Amino acid sequence: MTKSLEHVFAIASRLPESEQEDLAAAILAEIEAEDRFDAALAGSPESLDELADEALAEHRRGKTQPLDPQTR
Asked: Which whole-number Å values give the CA distances from 23 to 4, 9, 72, in the listed order?
C-alpha cells in the first residue's frame, strides 16, 4: 500500500462509522466499475474502436473542451 493511501485511510478511520461505510462503498463501486470497463474492452477490441469513434464524433460536433492540466 502506498504512503498516500495509508494517509487517506488513517484520516478516513476518524470519520463516523456511517461515513466510513459510505466511503468504502464508493471506493468499491469505483474499483468494480473499472474492472467491468477493462473486461468489456478486453472481451471486445471493437468496443474501444467504437468509443474512439464516438469521441471523435463528439469532438467534430463541438461537444468537447480542451483539456487544461493546470485546471482541476
From this structure: 16, 10, 21
